[in-house]
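During the second half of the funding period, the structural biology subgroup turned its attention to how the target accommodates small molecules. The most pressing case was iron/sulfur cluster, which had performed well in the primary screen but for which no bound structure existed. We therefore specified the complex as follows and requested a full 3D prediction, including the ligand pose.
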Amino acid sequence: MGDRMMAEPQDIALELSGVSKTYQISQGLFAASKPLRALDNISLQLRRGEVLGLVGESGCGKSTLAKVLLGLEKPTRGDVRIFDQPFGSHDRKWIARRIQPIFQDPYSSLNPRKSVREIITLPLRVHSVGKTSGWNDGVSRMLDLVGLPQRLIDANPSQMSGGQRQRVAIARALIMRPEVVICDEPTSALDVSVQSQILNLLMDLRDELGLTYLFISHNLAVVEHIASRVAVMYLGRVVEQGPAARIFETPKHPYAVALLDSILTPDPSMDVPDVDLDGNFPNPVDPPSGCTFHPRCASATSLCSRLRPEPVQQAPGFVTCHLHDPNQQKDMA
Ligand code: SF4
C-alpha cells in the first residue's frame, strides 16, 4: 500500500509497486540453497522535491532497495517506475542522468589512484556525456558547489580528509545533473563533527538544485534532521510510513517506537545505540512466521505468530501491524 491518491503521477519521481527481491543463499556443498527475501512486497513513492528517509537496522533490505532503484538489481517481482515510465524501458545512460547515488564510505567508493578531476568526470566518461573540452569547467563548478578548494582538482583521495572525500563523491553524483539522489548512509563513515557539515551541504544542494533525495540510514537522529517523510523497514517490509513530524512524535508500529527510543540517549554526540529490543535480529533466511517482528515485540499476541499483518492506512501514510488494523482488534485485545 502506498499513498498514491495524495500525489499526481507527474509529482512522483520514483514509484515501487509490490516489489520483491529474493536471493538464493547457498547452505553448503550438500544442502539445497534457501531463499532470502531481501525485499518483500514493497510499495513506496518518492515525490519530486522531497526527502524520504528510509530507516531500519542493518540487514533490513535498505541497501537492496537502493540497488533496485539504481538499476543495479532487478526485482524478482513487482514494478518500478521512474517519472511515471517503466524503469526497464530505459538504458543505463537515461537512468544515470536522472538518478545518482552517494554511498556510505568515501574511502572505498573513490579510487585512491585517480585524481579528483578523473573521479568527478567518471560518470561523464562512462556514459559519453558532453564534450571533453567542457569537462574541466564542469569539475570546477562542482568543486565550488560542494565547497572544495580548486587547488584539490589534481589531488587524489589519499591526500584528503573523510569529509573532503564525501564532498568529492557528492560532486561526482551531481555532475550528471540528476533530479534524484539516492543517499545510502552518506554520513555514517564520517566523524560525528563532520556529519552535520555534510548533512547541511546536502540540504543546501537540495534547495539550490531542486533535488529529490531518498535518504537511507540506520540512524534516526540523522533522518530526523533531514527527512520530510519517513519509511521504516523491518526484514524486507515497510512497517510504517508517514510524515516525519508525525512519526517522530507519535510512532505507531512497535518497531518504530523501539527505534525512536534508541535515539533518546543521554549524550547525542554518541554513536547510534543498539535498538533496545528483546531477541536478536532474526535470520532472514529463516524468518519468523506471521508478523516477522513478533519474537521481539512486547505487544505480540498469538495472532501475530500466525497471521502476517497487511498495511493499514493511517492517513497520511500506513502502518503494518495488527494493533492498528480495525479488523483484528478483537484478536489483539
Ligand atoms: Fe507486534 Fe503483532 Fe504488531 Fe507485529 S503485528 S508489530 S507482533 S503487535
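Two results from this model are relevant to the next phase. Residues 253-254, 291, 293-294, 297, 299-300, 304, 309, 321-323 surround iron/sulfur cluster (CB under 6 Å). The two ends are 25 Å apart (CA to CA).
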